Amino acid sequence: MRIFGELQGLYQGASFRNRLELSQSGLHKPPQAGISGSQIEGADSIIVSGGYEDDEDYGDIIIYTGHGGRDLSSGKQVTNQELVRGNLALAESCKNGLPVRVIRGAHKKSNIAPEEGYRYDGLFRVEDYWKEKGVSGFIVWRFRLRKIDGELKKDSKILQEEQEEYDFNKKTKRIETRVQRIVRDTALSKKIKEKYKYTCQVCNTQIETSSGYYAEAAHIKPLGAPHNGPDSEDNLICLCPNHHVMFDYGGFSILENFDLIGLKGKLKIMNNHKINKDYLRYHFEHFYDEKNR
Amino acid sequence: MRIFGELQGLYQGASFRNRLELSQSGLHKPPQAGISGSQIEGADSIIVSGGYEDDEDYGDIIIYTGHGGRDLSSGKQVTNQELVRGNLALAESCKNGLPVRVIRGAHKKSNIAPEEGYRYDGLFRVEDYWKEKGVSGFIVWRFRLRKIDGELKKDSKILQEEQEEYDFNKKTKRIETRVQRIVRDTALSKKIKEKYKYTCQVCNTQIETSSGYYAEAAHIKPLGAPHNGPDSEDNLICLCPNHHVMFDYGGFSILENFDLIGLKGKLKIMNNHKINKDYLRYHFEHFYDEKNR
């Protein structure tokens, strides 16, 4: 089983003399590959060791270059990279919000890397992935990772840009901090999405991306106070983003016989997926508003 | 013009003797109403003064009760509230991620409220809205607000629950911090969404919620390093959440003649909306991946 997130007893700053020690710790199991993960499960850890000419390490933000297409002896890019294997695993972590353990390896050109061996530097989130022509002229896949709950270092180039934008906003107009929508994934989200093969239980849509399918797991009775719905399979459904927004904002609800209200049709449910009807009633009573129809 | 966010020269902690002084400051203009805003624009400020029996003030998290249905002399709820006027304005702020200025009024029962008059307590985000039977037995609309960049106070009841969950996770299994997707709104987002009447430029879908329509403004060349796309109208399109996810994760792109690639059809564009073709090319080159089709 691939373990995502922190490992018991292994704290940030933990050091390892070599890849074998690191592998045995469980923080990053593959003995050679820089990305640990699979297309199905996502990536659980990476090693940032400056082996790729295109990597950019700003401390709490890392622009990481995918694998493939590299001449092993020179480290130079000699063909295009493709969105396969480890690269696809990182894209999967991006779409599912999975935490990625970052281990830095010693590297002369970096003042962030350890002086020798390998060091575990905590959990990062893959914010974005894209491809571009690398310094070699060949296509590389790139991943922006951001430290989870990390404080950005003052000298980070990226922070500087953000700070400048902030200062500019402050001088010229009102500060406006706007986060429209945060989709939080939980331990069970992936399981429920896989059960439905990333198909929306309302409309059967399967959203396609460059790295496979995308769906969202929606809690029927919301997590967090004052609702305090549980993170359990009987409180989760698999929806496309459109129907997730509509569900959270009361555009439709689900009756106890699974008929939709506010939308036509019925919720599609697998035989091995039991939904708790108390949670359906909670959603109907608290989020659906008949008056506005 | 309604101003969202901070007002120049008015800092957190600013105090006002009465509603007239507060109104003249511009922080909260209505002389009597607790919610300042409109259904079209959203709510820019609220007053938390304990006037509603159902309000719950935890400091950096507030469970705020909407307006309406209240007996003015006793403050008791005497009829159901509806999702109209100020309540609809707060729902609009929720869906668009608008910052809401919170002003606390003196209230004997609260140790968070000022001792007298009114105090500006910073920007909050409306995280969620729903209805429930209030303590009176009548329906009230409720809004959970969270302080933007605020540190949660240690004695917050809600934080305690979150802390307990965190401790539980730590004891029993791996810590997993998962944020699947953050949709950030910008100054121009609302303008572009209104231009298209909240209709997706790819599929014409208009997402319905209990408080009106919902759409997302997508940056063609992404904001932030290393892309550094601008927040300008010629870099924005109006999409439904499904096509926003697909666009960000390379499921489709847009050619310079506005034909879609990866999807059938053409981007619908209003005459008064000029899109910069350099940004389209950037998206196509960096996010669309033909190999995976």
Count of the domains of chain A: 2
What is the third-level CATH name, the topology of the largest domain in chain A? PUA domain-like
Helical residue percent band of chain A: 10-25%
Low-pLDDT segments of chain A: 171-175
What is the number of helical segments of chain A per DSSP (H or I, 4+ residues)?
A: 6
Number of strands of chain A: 15
What does the secondary structure layout of this molecule look like, with pairings?
The structure is a homodimer of 293-residue chains.
Chain A: E1 15-16, H1 19-25, E2 35-38, E3 42-48, E4 56-57, E5 61-65, H2 85-96, E6 99-105, E7 118-133, E8 139-147, H3 157-172, E9 179-184, H4 189-195, E10 207-209, E11 212-214, E12 216-219, E13 236-239, H5 241-248, E14 253-254, E15 260-261, H6 277-287
Model description:
The structure is a homodimer. By secondary structure, the first copy, chain A, is of the alpha+beta class. The first copy, chain A, folds into two domains: about 15-145, PUA domain-like (Roll), CATH 2.30.280.10; about 190-290, no CATH class. Chain A is built from six helices and 15 strands. In chain A, strands 1, 2, 3, 4, 5, 6, 7 and 8 form an eight-stranded mixed sheet that branches. The first copy, chain A, has a two-stranded antiparallel ribbon with strand order 10-11. Chain A has a two-stranded antiparallel ribbon with strand order 12-13. In chain A, a hairpin with a 3-residue loop joins β2 and β3. The longest helix of chain A has 16 residues, at about 155-170. Chain A starts with 14 loop residues before the first strand and ends in a 6-residue tail after the last helix. Mean pLDDT of chain A is about 90; it is low at about 170-175. The interface between A and B is large, with 81 and 80 residues. β9 of chain A pairs antiparallel with β9 (about 180-185) of chain B.
